[in-house]
Amino acid sequence: MNLNELFTAYEWVSAGEAAALDCEAYISRKTGEIHWSGEGVEEPLPEDVDDEGLYVAVPHKSEFDLGRSLAIRFVEEHLPGSLESVHEYFRRRGAYSRFKALLVHAGQLEAWHRYEQAATEEALRRWCEEHGLMPC
Question: Residue 64: CB partners within 8 Å, gap ≥ 6?
Fold first, then answer.
């Protein structure tokens, strides 16, 4: 299982909900090939894609704890003086836009992107192991 391809499929699946699209992706347990479904995808899914012994659905970001709690951990490590403000952000709507504005103001946006990507890759590695897939 190619981790870069899995990351792309994960982003596809996760972005579909935000754009009100029905984006899905499935990994063949036998070949590691990813099969895509959604707007603009021409190739149909395999007929037996619902067989969990043969395919596993690529997870949506909501299946991992990579939202609010990850942002809080980042702030604890990189901007501890802003922790109270960030907790307040996440008590109301629009938290991520305020959080990202704080990161830009503090010069930490790129560090956040690296941190988030590393956490996502680690979560995907664990997910692969749990589903009997070998990430590379």
Answer: 120, 123, 127
Q: Which residues neighbour 55 within 8 Å (Cβ) at sequence distance 6 or greater? A: 26, 27, 28, 29, 35, 46, 48, 49
Q: Three-state secondary structure along 9-27?
A: HHHHHHHHHHCCCCCEEEE
User: Tens digit of pLDDT for each residue in 59-118?
Assistant: 988 889 888 999 999 999 999 999 999 999 999 999 999 999 999 999 999 999 999 999
- pLDDT level of residue 21 (50, 70, 90 thresholds): low
| Number of other CB atoms surrounding residue 33 within 10 Å | 13
Tokens 């109301």 locate to: 92
> Can you tell me which residue has the tokens 């009100």?
20
Question: What's the distance, CA 136 to chain centroid?
Answer: 18
